[in-house]
């Protein structure tokens, strides 16, 4: 039987759900909603990195990413430049990016990822 662990949980959701060798992160949004797309993307990626570390993994173990942008035409290139600088070499996950109405008008980007847990001793 596979053990399921939940990290940073509340009544509505968990920040990370661990099941077997996989980690499922909830969609992460920025903290500073007055910031532009570059800073908001950096904030979201920092939150993802912290959640992965909490669950025993890292950004080199990403398998899949879903990215939602408030304005894909305006923000896609800048978000991509921050994303590419953040990713370790040769570790790009499968990814989809779409435009969406996000939870609050000030949120410019939301990112959700699935990652693997590294094998013990790696």
TrEMBL record:
InterPro entries in the cross-refs: RutC-like_sf, YjgF/YER057c/UK114, YoaB-like
Coiled-coil annotated residue ranges, if any: none
Cited CDD domains: YjgF_YER057c_UK114_like_2 (cd06150)
Top-rank lineage group of the source organism: Bacteria
Protein name: Enamine deaminase RidA (YjgF/YER057c/UK114 family)
Taxonomic lineage of the native organism: Bacteria, Pseudomonadati, Pseudomonadota, Gammaproteobacteria, Pseudomonadales
